[in-house]
Amino acid sequence: DAGVTQSPTHLIKTRGQQVTLRCSPKSGHDTVSWYQQALGQGPQFIFQYYEEEERQRGNFPDRFSGHQFPNYSSELNVNALLLGDSALYLCASSPGLSREGSETQYFGPGTRLLVL
Amino acid sequence: AQSVTQPDIHITVSEGASLELRCNYSYGATPYLFWYVQSPGQGLQLLLKYFSGDTLVQGIKGFEAEFKRSQSSFNLRKPSVHWSDAAEYFCAVGLLGNEKLTFGTGTRLTIIP
Q1: In terms of Cα–Cα distance, which of A4, A17, A23, A7 is closest to A86?
Q2: Which residues contact B91 (CB under 8 A, 6 or more apart)?
Q3: Among A41, A40, A28, A35, which residue's Cα sits nearest to residue A6?
Q4: Does A46 contact chain B (CB < 8 Å)?
């Protein structure tokens, strides 16, 4: 049973560029959440996708956008990259709302983004 | 506002000694509570969780945590640590119907021989 997978593992971009990160949820999960973890900090919630819709959003600017596909995989897009966007980006999956275990999120290994 | 506090940034423990990592939360209702562990360069692994019922919960790797409503705490414990327990530990909180997790800033655990 595959867990949550993310790609790529590492990425280097320059300021002003755009980046796309990808996530495949754990088998049987249909809800995907994205978190940003800056160095030395705890993860911060970016947004959550369920049924291909953004269900909830944290305190992040519109430069951060996402998408969920019919197979439940998800992408995180960040436009106009800033130096401060350098972080570990974590994807988490969970069963859908009202399903048993929906409150528990399982995390992938993350994508480390460096913006120069 | 909802918040999670892990007051200890860094803890050093001798191998074989007992461990307690502190977590306090501030929420309007009884939340769901989690402890995750993160090894260097890795994602988060779920150690244990509390939703309701018995306030002492058991997790993987010999860890346990106790929910104390009166103190708004959910401290993580292990009776005897192993060198492989060296990692960053995060306490997280969620609410029913709101699956966003709010994390503390983490406690880095160092194990000395």
Answers
A1: A17
A2: B4, B6, B21, B23, B25, B33, B34, B35, B74, B76, B103, B104
A3: A35
A4: no
A5 touches chain B (CB under 8 A): no
Q: Is the pLDDT of residue A95 over 90?
A: no
Q: Residue A45 is nearest to which of B36, B100, B106, comparing CB atoms?
A: B100
Q: Select the residue of B43, B100, B106 nearest A110 (Cβ to Cβ).
A: B43
The two three-digit tokens of residue B36, written as one number: 């995750």
* C-alpha span between A85 and B20 (Å, rounded): 33
- Compare CB distances from B99 to A40, A102, A106 and report the shortest one's residue: A102
pLDDT tens for B56-111 read 999 999 999 999 999 999 999 999 999 999 999 999 998 876 678 999 999 999 99
- Give the tens place of pLDDT for each residue, B23-40: 999 877 778 899 999 998
- SS3 of chain A: helix, strand, coil, percent, to 5: 5, 50, 50
Contact between chains at A103 and B105 (C-beta distance less than 8 A):
no
